[in-house]
Amino acid sequence: MDRTKVNIAKIFLEPYSRFHFGEYKIDHDLSLSDSSFFCHSDTLFSALINQCDRLNDDPDSFVEAFKEDEICISSVFYFFEKANCDPIYLLPKPVFIDKKVKISGAANKKQIQGVKFVSKAVWDKGFEYEKWNDIKSYVILQGNIVLTKEEYDQFGFNRNSALVKKNTRPKNQVRRPKKQARRKEDGIYYQTDVMVCSPAGVKAGIYFFYDVEDENTKRQFFNAVNVLCFSGLGGEQALLGRTPRKVPDFDQSLSFDSNKARLASISLFSPTDEAELAACTIYETSLRGGHKSGLSQNTDVVPMVMEGAEFTSSAKGCLVDLSLLPEKPIFRNGKVFLLPFESK
Q1: Cβ–Cβ < 8 Å for 98, 114
Q2: CA terminus-to-terminus distance, the chain
Q3: What is the phi-psi region of residue 230: left when phi exceeds 0, alpha when psi lies from -120 to 50, beta otherwise?
Q4: Nearest to 271 by CA among 188, 185, 203, 335
Q5: Could you give phi then psi for residue 12, rounded to 5 degrees?
Q6: N or C: which terminus of the chain carries fewer CB neighbours within 10 A?
Q7: How large is the average pLDDT for residues 284-311?
Q8: pLDDT tens figures, 210-235
C-alpha cells in the first residue's frame, strides 16, 4: 500500500473554546444567529492574508503564491488527544453518502444523513456507512460524529459525551447614555457560537492541511499562523476565537492511501473552467461572500462547492475577486484541497 503524507498545522485550545463562523445570510440581521460547524478555507485564507498585512510581510506576494499554486490550504477541522490513545482527527463526511447511496430503513437513513464529521479512522476504513449503527463497529456521537468503536472505548466516551456543539444565547448591545436615542438595532439579538468541548482527560484543538513549496511562502505562512493563533479566527474576535494553549505545531502529518481511486475535497472549491467542474461529480454548493466592505456596501457573492465533494480527477480551483472596486480586490479562496478515499 502506497501512503502519501500530508502536512497539518495543529493548534491546541483551552477547554471549551468558542468560535463564530458566520454563514451568508440575505438578511444581515440574522448573520449572527447561525454559525458553520467549522472554519471554511476561504475564511482561513482571509485571516492569513490579514495577518501578513498586520506583519507588513508583503500580503500581495502571499496572495500571488495562492494564485500560482505555491501554497494550498484546507478548511479547519477538530482533533482530540488523550494519553496512550491515537489522536482523533475529524474530517467532513463525503457528500456521496447522502446523494447516491441507498440506505435501508428510514430511521437509519435519517441518522446517517445527520452525520457531519467522520474520524480519520472511519475515513481509512472506507466509509462502511451500513455499519455505522452497528455498535460493535462504530458509534455516532452527539448525532453528527462517527467514530470507530475502538476510538470510542479508548477515549472513555459515553453516549452523552460532546466534542463540538453549537450554543445560541441572547445578547444585548452596549447600553447607550440616557440622552442618546435608542435605536432598533440596540435591542436583544441572538448569537450562535461553536464550542469545542474537552471531556475529562481529553485535549482538543483545531487543525488544517497545508502544502507549501516555496521557502519564502512557507516563512510567510508560518508567521501568519503564529500570529493568527493569538489574534483570533472567525467572527466576534473581541470575545471569541483566540484561546490557544501553546504555539501551533507544524511538524506533524497524516498519511493516506494514494492508490485509492476516488478523491474528496476538504476545502471549498471554485472551478477555473468547465473541465474542472466536470471533474467534480457529486457535490453541494453554498453562497460565499456578501459581507460589508469598507464602502459600507455588501460585496458580491459567489457559489462554491462545499467540503466533501467527490472528484474523478485532480483539480486546482481559483481565487475569486468579489470586490466592488478593481483597485481594492477582495479575494475568496476557491483553491481545492483533495484527499484520496474509497468506499466499501
Answers
A1: no
A2: 17
A3: alpha
A4: 335
A5: -75, 140
A6: N
A7: 79
A8: 999 899 999 999 999 999 888 888 76
**Which residues have CB under 8 Å from 119's CB, separation 6+?**
88, 89, 90, 91, 145, 146, 147, 148, 151
Q: Which three cell numbers stand for residue 107?
A: 430511521
CA 96, CA 248: separation in Å to the nearest integer? 33
Residue 242 has phi, psi (to 5 degrees) of: -145, 65
Predicted confidence band at 34 (pLDDT cuts at 50, 70, 90)?
low
Beta-carbon neighbour count of residue 304 at 10 Å?
Answer: 27
Nearest by Cα to 47 from 28, 19, 6, 86: 19
Which distant-in-sequence residues (6+ apart) come within 8 Å of 176 by Cβ?
182, 186
Average pLDDT value for residue range 85-106? 86
Q: What is the pLDDT of residues 134-165, one digit of tens each?
A: 889 999 999 999 999 999 999 999 989 999 99
Residue 4 to residue 337: CA distance in whole angstroms: 14
In sequence order, the β-bridge partners of residue 338 are 265
Output the CA–CA distances (angstroms, integers) from residue 169 to 28, 166, 207, 319, in the order listed: 18, 10, 27, 35
Distance CA 89, CA 256 (A): 13
